[in-house]
Amino acid sequence: MKYRLSALFFFVTVSIIAQQTTTVNYLNTPLSEAFADLEKTFNVKFSFNSEIVNNRAITFNLSEATLDEILINIEEQLFLKFKKESNRYYTVKLVKKQLTDTQELDEVLIEEYITSGISNDKDDASVSISPEKLGILPGLTEPDVLQSIQLIPGVQSPSETASDLFIRGGTPDQNLILWDGIKMYHTGHFFGTISAFNPYITDQIKLYKSGTKAKYGGRIAGVIDIESDKTIPKSTEGGFGFNMTHTDAFIKAPLNKKTAVLFSARRSITDVFDTETFRNLSKRVFQETKISNGNKVFGDDEVTTTNDLFYFTDFTAKVIVNPNEKNALEVSSLYTKNKLDYGFLIEAFEEASQDKLDIVNQGISLNWKHDFNASFSHNFNAYYSNFDLEYVGTNSISGELDNQLDKHNSIKDFGMAYNLDWNLSETSSIGLGYQFSSNQVKYKLIYEAPDSPEDNFVKSSIETNNITHALYFDHQYKLDKKWFVNTGLRANYFSVINKFYIEPRLQLSTNLNPFLKFKVSGERLHQSVSEVLEFNTREFGLENQVWVLSDGEEIPILKSTQLTTGFVFSKNGWGIDYEMYYKKANGLTTLGFDRIEDFFFKGKSNVFGIDFLVKKKIQNYRTWLSYSLINNDFEFEAINDGKKFPGNTDITHNFVWSHTYEWNHFNVSLGWNIRTGIPFTKATGIQDTPDGAEIVFESTNSSRLPNYHRLDVSTTYTFNISKKSNWKGKLGLSLLNIYNRENMLSRTYEIRQSTQNSEDELREINKTSLGLTPNMVFRVEF
User: Fold this and answer.
1) Residue from 506, 503, 481 nearest 494 by CA
2) For 280, which of 13, 179, 460, 773 could close a Cys bridge (C-beta 3.0–4.6 Å)?
3) Alpha carbon distance 115, 89 (integer Å)
4) Helix, strand, coil percent values for the chain (each to nearest 5)
5) In the 8-state DSSP scheme, what is residue 497?
6) What phi, psi does 781 have (nearest 5°)?
């Protein structure tokens, strides 16, 4: 009944919008700022290529003018053409009379890569995402920063989480994630189901799957560069809202014409309200862990919960200072926290257990940009990032045992960078710089069992600090607006192993005709800090990854080489993007795949893949279809007799078909995802050994889980709260996994004592996906 009432409330909300007018006073105002101002004033969205607004400004005054009157003035000054696609969305294009060189017609432009707010950068291999302009996406009522990226071909999340992003065969720890220049080591809330970045203060997200610029280093997979809002508003702006997992608020206030402050906060409501959304997420996250089954030995054991606390929160604060036209200064800070305290008691056995987990990631950065002139500028960045994980698990039975496991993992990362950008001419530019970082990584595992002292252990890392020095150089060359070549070189020095590594980068593209562009890129990458599995907290079942620092021997430096080629086609509303790539990685480290080991295995991987996207826009309707093929082979000398085997998250085929439609102030999106099940190592039985019973396995990752498929839908309704339209509201409803498909996400095995007798038996442990999960959102912005 509550869902019916919620749906009724959602669909009967009505808003009568009068014809709006406003007074504008533009004096050499950048076009990008004017667009942002009009979008907020009239609740509209402009879709355009970034080149349209670069280095362009407008000057005119209008009193009590409508949006149409303002757009006519902009069209006349800058030779633009606005096309009204719907009541809210406008596309912006250059008109032909501005073209002074027929070669401009040779540029292949895709204004929207997938939907509004997601675009291809014409001058590099990145995909840009603007949460403020982002169109509605399947299953999302709000623009989650990391979940939005998963709709891009080549980016997958086998675990159905926001933060576990596997980019072209790489693992999440192999992605460089920056927030205002701060390196992030923990990017999810509630064990990855929600990203730790507030989308409402995020200005732009840049994703690199290949063709990475030389200024980015330290990781071998993708780059996710997140920038928060950096403009100074004319008046105070803000917003607040809530959904079925958390509530948030943000405010952006000008102190004067040259200074502004920005603050945002989010906190879960799960420790106050028990919603259906949270219950479903909890069932998915805690399944087959101590928290879900209470460490029961027998199915009819009565378990009493003694502690049940969980919450997450994040805060950001930023100061923006633009003292003059040539200088911009930003100081940004971020704090995220996840806290869990859970305990239970089985009175029949007088068994008590408690698990405490605290995860904190915080950082601060300083960014200063100075333009010497129109062609020459520099940028200075300094940051400090601190990640800290503390876990304490206790288990006691009166008179029999009293065990405790402590786990600590921390990273202290300080760095600075100085970059120069120089436009030598209209066709040539260079970028060069120096980067320094000091990275201290520690982990410690302590197990104390007073009743079984032979089981006690202490395992910890040597307190080592890795100093990295890096020099980089990029050169961009454009010829007749047809050819684009970016060559780069990066040199890294890692003090922890006292070695230099050279990383060449190359990106080339050419317009074969007005509708078709060919592209190719190659790059070499290195990584000194990564995550490995640890099995000592396996009974807890969560957060069993540990950050470790390479030592050149037991844990080698990760190395990756990637080659990519493809083409882009754009004509008559159709867009096609095709890429084929080969990637080789060395230095992979693990403690085991199908069994627990106490030493590290070292290996390599070879990845071949294809990413394909086709999209079509018909007035207010958009549809896009993406397909990814990946063949990810691992090879470890001490595993699987040294033979190749599929990687743990090798999703051979991944198919996504999405649709969006806008009608007045309603937006609806529907998306279907089907993919190959991930590999697993099948167990065939149990055998007795001198060390006890062991599981007998088939070849490593020689079996696959059933295919995965899911259908999601979301809808939003926007409305004006005030007559002047400076207060706006939004209602949203989403349903994940509409037909309640039970998808298998993982399969493992363990030996358990039989409930019928004292003999050991093999138990299969299956973790499944989210079932039918609703969510609702209500927001107000001003």
Assistant:
1) 503
2) 773
3) 12
4) 10, 55, 35
5) T
6) -130, 150
pTM, two decimals, is: 0.85
Per-residue pLDDT tens digits for 316-334: 999 999 999 899 999 999 9
Cα three-residue angle 105-107-113, rounded to 5 degrees:
130
How many whole angstroms separate alpha carbon 166 and alpha carbon 185? 15
Q: For 347, list phi and psi in degrees, rounded to 5.
A: -65, -35
User: Using the 8-state DSSP alphabet, how is residue 678 labeled?
Assistant: P
Both tokens assigned to 340: 């869990």
Cα separations in angstroms, 744 against 161, 648, 658, 738, 774: 14, 14, 23, 16, 20
d(CA 477, CA 485): 5
CA distance 607 to 782: 48
- pLDDT, tens only, 175-228: 999 999 999 999 999 888 899 999 999 999 999 999 999 999 999 999 999 999
In angstroms, the CA 463 to CA 410 distance is 11
pLDDT reported for residue 448: 82
Distance CA(751)–CA(596), nearest Å, equals 13
Residue 733: name the closest of 662, 667, 780, 663 by CA: 667
Can you read off the two tokens belonging to residue 43?
């609740």
Pull the structure tokens for residue 668: 């609806």
For residue 94, the Cα-to-chain-centroid distance in whole angstroms is 33
Cα(112)–Cα(574) distance, integer angstroms:
11
Contact 427, 477 (CB under 8 A): yes
Under a CB-based contact definition with an 8 Å cutoff, are residues 110 and 575 in contact? yes
- Please report the domains of the chain, with CATH numbers, ordered by start residue: 20-100 (3.55.50.30), 145-781 (2.40.170.20)
Two structure tokens written together for 134: 């982002």
As a whole number, mean pLDDT of residues 147-169 equals 91
Tell me which residue of 222, 248, 114, 111 sits closest to 166, measured CA to CA. 222
Angstrom CA distances, 196 to 102, 335, 493, stand at: 47, 9, 31
DSSP-assigned beta bridge partners for residue 84:
90
Look up residue 290 and give its two tokens: 């101590």
Question: What is the spatial distance between Cα 173 and Cα 202, in angstroms, rounded to a whole number?
Answer: 22
3-state secondary structure of 278: helix
Burial class for 625, CB neighbours closer than 10 Å (0-12, 13-18, 19+): middle
Backbone angles phi, psi at 210, to 5 degrees: -165, 180
Tokens of 191: 């064990």
pLDDT digits (tens, 9 = 90+) for 524-556: 999 999 988 765 665 666 777 889 999 888 889
> What would the pLDDT profile of 245-265 be if each residue is shown by its tens digit?
999 999 999 999 999 999 999
DSSP per-residue letters across 39-104? HHHHT-EEE--GGGTTT-EEEEEEEEE-HHHHHHHHHHHHTEEEEE-SSSEEEEEE-GGG--SGGG
CA 84-88-92 angle, 5° bins: 40
Residues 6+ apart with CB under 8 A from 54: none
Instruction: Give every CB contact of residue 69 below 8 A, 6+ residues apart in sequence.
Output: 62
| Contact present, 505 and 522 (Cβ < 8 Å) | yes
Q: What DSSP line would sit under 711-768, residue for residue? A: EEEEEEEEEESSTTS-SEEEEEEEEESTT----EEEEEEEEEE-SSSSSEEEEEEEEE
- In degrees, rounded to 5, the angle at the alpha carbon of residue 451 between the alpha carbons of residues 446 and 455 is 45
> Which letter does DSSP use for residue 137 in this model?
B
AA identity, residue 680:
F
Give me the phi and psi of 281, to 5 degrees please.
-65, -40
pLDDT at position 600: 75
Convert 72-108 to b/e letters by CB count within 10 Å (16 or more is b). Answer: ebbeeebebebeebbebbbbbebeeeeeeeeeeebbb
CA 21/CA 167 separation, integer angstroms:
46
b/e sequence 37-66, b meaning 16+ C-beta within 10 Å: bbbbbbbbbbbbbeebbeeebbeeebeebe
pLDDT at 34: 85
